[in-house]
Amino acid sequence: MRHGVRLRKLGRTSSHRRALLRSLTTSLFRHERITTTLPKAKELRPFAERLITCARRDDLHARRRVLRQVADKEVVKKLFDILGPRFAARPGGYSRILQLGPRQGDGAEMAIVELVGSEPTFKKSLEEKKARRERKAKVKAEAAKERGPEAPAEEPGEAAPPAAKGRRKDKDAG
């Protein structure tokens, strides 16, 4: 039975596992979205969320507790200045795990770990598509003016198919 067994060992010694979680957490706070294996992601989530909860307090003791785990001072500054206030009103659940499926090389289950609120936005690409459509319609309208009213409008995809090469009509008939 597994009474009292709380964590995944991940095939590492305790010091190696602690170093792994610290580096994954640093990368998560720096980039706000990382890709890793599913067991590592599940082990990382409570570790990182505890540090975010600590950063919400924003006092000297909390900063020193976080600095014990995250060695990069720029990341700690970001955690306390940006991420802590972002999650100040949220009562937990600061990250999410998205399962990706098996990795090509060894079949390990992969996952994306991201902080809530750092999802990619595709608004800019939608605006670009709209602008591209408008430019295309404008070009078509100008081309129609140049051809005149009696010329039929030809679409690039409506051209007649080319004749089959190397075949004679009498072979097709019989």
Compact summary:
With 174 residues, this protein is mainly alpha-helical. 53% of the residues lie in helices and 11% in strands.
SSE diagram, text form:
Elements: H1 14-31, E1 33-37, H2 38-57, H3 60-69, H4 73-86, E2 95-102, E3 109-115, H5 123-147, H6 169-173
Report on this model:
The radius of gyration is 29 Å and the shape is elongated. It has a domain at 14-115: Alpha-Beta Complex (50s Ribosomal Protein L17, Chain: A), CATH 3.90.1030.10. The model has no long low-confidence stretch (mean pLDDT 86). α2 (38-57) packs across α4. Strands 1-3-2 form a 3-stranded antiparallel beta sheet. The protein has 6 helices and 3 strands, in the order αβαααββαα. It has 174 residues and is mostly helical. 16% of the residues are buried.
Instruction: Measure the end-to-end span.
Output: 79 Å
Level of helix content? 40-55%
* Number of E-state strands: 3
Rounded mean pLDDT is 86
Biggest β-sheet description: 3 strands, antiparallel
Order of helices and strands: HEHHHEEHH
Radius of gyration: 29 Å
Number of helices: 6
- Report the β-strand fraction as a percent range: 5-15%
Strand neighbour order, sheet with most strands = 1-3-2
Q: Class of the domain at 14-115 in CATH? A: Alpha Beta
What would the CATH topology of the domain at 14-115 be?
50s Ribosomal Protein L17, Chain: A
CATH superfamily of the domain at 14-115: Ribosomal protein L17
Which residue ranges are poorly predicted, with pLDDT under 50 across at least 5 consecutive positions?
none
Query: What is the overall silhouette?
Result: elongated
Give the structural class: mainly alpha
CATH architecture term of the domain at 14-115: Alpha-Beta Complex
